[in-house]
Amino acid sequence: MSKVIFTHALADDLEAYCLRQALPKKLVLCVDKYIDTHFGAALSLELRKKNFTAHKSVIPASERSKSLAMANKLYGEWLTAGVDRSHVVVAIGGGVVGDLAGFVAASYMRGLRLIHVPTTLLAMVDSAIGGKVAVNHHAGKNLIGFFYDAELTLIDTAFLRSLPERDMHSGLAEVLKYALIGDEKFLTFLERHFEDILAQRPPLLTAIKKSVAAKLRIVRQDFRETKGLRATLNFGHTFAHALEKLAHYKYLRHGEAVLWGMLCASALSWRVGKITAEDLKRIAQMVVRFKIKERIAKAYFLECKEAEIINAMQADKKKQDGKLRFVLLEKIGQAALSDEQIEMHKVCQAIKDAKALWKHAGNA
Ligand SMILES: NC(=O)c1ccc[n+]([C@@H]2O[C@H](COP(=O)([O-])OP(=O)(O)OC[C@H]3O[C@@H](n4cnc5c(N)ncnc54)[C@H](O)[C@@H]3O)[C@@H](O)[C@H]2O)c1
């Protein structure tokens, strides 16, 4: 299982890894376009000083990059550049770059070693941990992929200094998920330190470390998502992936969709009698502290018809025998993949509840 290291010296850590594994210092860097523009030259210099050779593929961070077409482009580039199995792929960017580079690393020449260097909060706490790599299909998100663990994830929180507020909020949504599905005390911590975390004061590092530990704890027990446990990490995602699809994978951040998805899933947990009205209220009070532009909330959540959202859910990977399955909260801090058949009118009602809670807080 992948090792996670917190660092402020990437080149040193890459060198130490190659020495430890007795590998030649040959890298394939897959770099987010923004990161390449702002940090690429300095990183290349550091790597040259340590006698690394590196082929670099620069990737526009758009959900559209997570495609078989882009994967095919990278295969071609790497073949032309003579990339072979002695190279180590280093994915430097957010979840888009990590998922795409991981997918290509897993399939190119039957698999190259992979190191993640996450540069968004979302990637640090979620996508760069746990070995899911994928590209999208027009039928739905992340439908073509592998379980392919990175050898190493190197987290340098200094990258977050340039991250826009919108992406901090998006990443924090996945942090909130860990609290809701597994750790009520962590929710109390997030309630207390929400502003500190967004302002990148010390509780941010605590929140990242707790999230990484939570994810590792789950994926170590259920790497291939066969025991139902790992599926709990998908809390809110059945709704979220549908919202992302309706927003053409373009106009919503993943975490924004997950935030509303978690509100819908919490409302559904209440509707089927699992959590109390007080629990739902507490969750809603936390969710509405996240900032999402009114225009975006209207267009990609509030004005989406419930039937359209439900229809867009049908490509969900948790579906079994043609039936949708939902991750529901048993209580705050405990979630499970529900086996019971949930009537669609309750799902529809839960979406309406979530919209009402969002509107009620003055978010639209
Ligand atoms: N594999 C998994 O387990 C997993 C888990 C959660 C999410 N995901 C996937 O992750 C993706 C979302 O990831 P994301 O939110 O990181 O989005 P992203 O990769 O699109 O990055 C968001 C934006 O931040 C920019 N950026 C990256 N680092 C920056 C920095 N340090 N400073 C300034 N800007 C920076 C990017 O250029 C981009 O514009 C989705 O495709 C989602 O499906 C995967």
UniProtKB/TrEMBL annotation:
Species in which this protein is naturally found: Candidatus Thermochlorobacter aerophilus
Entries under NCBIfam families matching the protein: aroB
Record pathway: Metabolic intermediate biosynthesis; chorismate biosynthesis; chorismate from D-erythrose 4-phosphate and phosphoenolpyruvate: step 2/7
Cofactor comment: Binds 1 divalent metal cation per subunit. Can use either Co(2+) or Zn(2+).
EC number: 4.2.3.4
Catalytic activity: 7-phospho-2-dehydro-3-deoxy-D-arabino-heptonate = 3-dehydroquinate + phosphate
Top-level division of the source organism's lineage: Bacteria
Cofactor dependency: NAD(+); Co(2+); Zn(2+)
Amino-acid positions noted as binding NAD(+) in the UniProt annotation, renumbered to this chain: 95-99, 119-120, 132, 141
Family to which the UniProt record says this protein belongs: Belongs to the sugar phosphate cyclases superfamily. Dehydroquinate synthase family.
Listed GO biological process terms: amino acid biosynthetic process; aromatic amino acid family biosynthetic process; chorismate biosynthetic process
Keywords from the UniProt entry: Amino-acid biosynthesis, Aromatic amino acid biosynthesis, Cobalt, Cytoplasm, Lyase, Metal-binding, NAD, Nucleotide-binding, Zinc
The name this protein goes by in its record: 3-dehydroquinate synthase
3-dehydroquinate synthase N-terminal domain location: 58-169
UniProt gene name: aroB
Free-text function comment from the UniProt entry: Catalyzes the conversion of 3-deoxy-D-arabino-heptulosonate 7-phosphate (DAHP) to dehydroquinate (DHQ).
Major location (coarse): cytoplasm
